[in-house]
Specification:
Helix content is 83%, strand content 0%. The chain is mainly alpha-helical and 301 residues long. The chain is flat, with a radius of gyration of 27 Å.
Length: 301
């Protein structure tokens, strides 16, 4: 029984490592490398063995814990907001979820057999481990979404300043978006990548309104949605894009300053916990230690 658990644990961990490798650091093929060298926004979804493996691993989980069409669409949207644009990202996510769902209880079972713990501990801790393995990918995904949205939010103010300069210099909206994407390549790679996708969609024939709406859906940032609505209305009614973007950039800069002030106000409150929990006890111990030692010596006599 112990040998079987060890084999299953090793298999689950190996599948988990392979899934993470496929999702994060999979080497691109020759065609993909050439396309990405031409334009970083171009990606090619290949039908490779890793994709087939992810499908086979995710299939048992889909049977055990079926996912509805609405939940699948929501998961795909969350993966887009986290920066995973491949259609196979959902299968890789489910494969990782299945691997951790099986690997964590198997590891708990091995520890219980090694330390000779009772069966009740195996059932209780195994259930907690299975729940942790199932929900851990969700927590990681939400954290990646929040971090990426924060980076895009901070990058939007710089992008709007550049757009005001580009539009008032005489560039059209498409050319301005292309120029801003190139300028933000090093400072804000997430914003650069999103603007490159917008330019690529416009290049392949989609309307500018549809490409901008896709930008708002991919990022999920409220400021991006407001900015997209502003551009669509200005383009639809023929108003001056430069003036509209300048007003929006001023309001966004004020909002960013207010967010920085709010974060600085929260910092003082967050410092109370480590100060009261770590620093103050040490100070009290240093101050009262001599008196306590004198009292101990006095009562011991």
């Amino acid at each position: 029984m112990l040998i079987l658990i060890v084999i299953l644990t090793f298999s689950c961990l190996a599948l988990g490592v392979m899934s993470l490798y496929w999702l994060v650091a999979r080497p691109a093929g020759n065609v993909t490398s050439r396309l990405e060298s031409m334009d970083p926004a171009l990606t090619l979804v290949e039908n490779n063995p890793m994709t087939v493996m992810a499908e086979r691993v995710a299939e048992p989980l889909n049977r055990i814990v079926p996912i509805s069409a609405g939940e699948a669409q929501k998961l795909q949207k969350q993966l887009l907001q986290a920066g995973y644009l491949s259609q196979d990202a959902a299968m890789a996510y489910r494969a990782i979820q299945l691997t951790l769902f099986v690997a964590f209880p198997s590891l708990v079972a091995i520890l219980c057999f090694v330390f000779n713990r009772p069966l009740s501990n195996l059932v209780v801790f195994g259930g907690f481990a299975a729940a942790a393995g199932f929900y851990l990918p969700r927590l990681v995904l939400r954290s990646k979404i929040a971090n990426r949205q924060l980076r895009i939010t901070w990058a939007l103010a710089d992008a709007l300043d550049l757009m005001v300069i580009a539009v008032e210099a005489g560039l059209g909206l498409n050319a301005a978006l292309n120029r801003i994407g190139e300028e933000l390549r090093g400072a804000h790679p997430d914003m650069h990548y999103e603007l490159e996708l917008v330019n690529l969609e416009i290049r392949v024939g989609r309307s500018r309104e549809e490409a901008l709406r896709n930008l708002a859906e991919r990022t999920g940032v409220d400021d991006i949605r407001s900015f997209v609505a502003l551009l669509i209305q200005a383009d639809r009614y023929g108003s001056s894009i430069g003036k509209a973007v300048r007003v929006f950039a001023d309001s966004l800069r004020t909002k960013r300053r207010q967010r920085a002030e709010q974060a600085s106000q929260k910092a003082t409150l967050k410092l109370i916990i480590p100060l009261t929990g770590l620093l103050f006890p040490v100070i009290i111990l240093v101050i009262l230690a001599p008196a306590l030692l004198n009292l101990i010596d006095l009562f011991s006599m």
